[in-house]
Amino acid sequence: MQKNLKNTVLLVEDESINQKLAAAVLKKIGFQVDLADNGMEAVHMVRGQQYCMVLMDIQLPEMSGYEAVRQIRSMEELEGRKRLPIIAMTADDSREVRRKCMATGMDDFITKPIKPELLMTQLAPWLGVLQNTEEWCQNRERKKRKKTDKNIPAAVWDRERTLAFVGGDLELFCGLAKMFIEKNQPLLETISRAIEENDGPALREAAHSYKGAVSHFSAEKMRNLAYKLENCGRRKSMDTAPAFFTELQKMALLLVADLRKELPGGCP
């Protein structure tokens, strides 16, 4: 028998920064959040719990978001369950991917990197929280208009845009910064190893994760370099990858140094 969790959203996302950001937005308007790191785990959790919604990443380990949704829809049909709203999350907003999401059985589509205000606007009709959403967005606007007296160089990232992105929420900002600092070196090492071993799929996956991580800090040059590395992996063409990676490493050092400056005095 399913346990009814009418106030709980299942967030299926293997990238920890996206997990933290989406969960923070949902919790701010009164929802609980359960986390699943892969599609197989998501199917298992839906089988035992009655969620009010699922936010489903597409590119997941063990079982893709597409396959997870197929299995959930099949489960609903076989067991006569009420249709569960499932919202796709992906960095690829092409028409082809959108069509595939809808054809698979998803109900809506959200592009990454996750933008809190846009996330709430899109989820409101499904969650029935329009009033809470309007209040939350108004609070975000008030925070965004507040001036900051910090003047951090924005050659690699944009502090003002990043804070606006999280609605002026310093606790959330610092949490994202800490997570990025922890993930940065392991991800770079994975990218480096993939290039050395001429492993296209591994490079594509690691660069994709890195692209998502830096997107939250408005680090556009770094995001573009990660995108180029992702394409190198996709095409299995490594000729230009070392040069892209060298430049990415240099920028990563600057970004991490700047983020570390934010943590001691500026974080709750």
From TrEMBL:
Q: Which UniProt keywords apply?
A: Phosphoprotein, Two-component regulatory system
Domain (Response regulatory) spans: 8-127
Q: Name one GO biological process term.
A: phosphorelay signal transduction system
Keyword set includes Transferase: no
Q: Which residues carry this modification: 4-aspartylphosphate?
A: D57
HPt domain mapped to chain residues: 169-266
Identify the domain of life: Bacteria
**Any one Pfam family match given in the protein's UniProt record, by short name:** Response_reg
Q: Which residues carry this modification: Phosphohistidine?
A: H208
**What is the protein's given name?**
Response regulator
Q: Which species does this protein come from?
A: Desulfomarina profundi
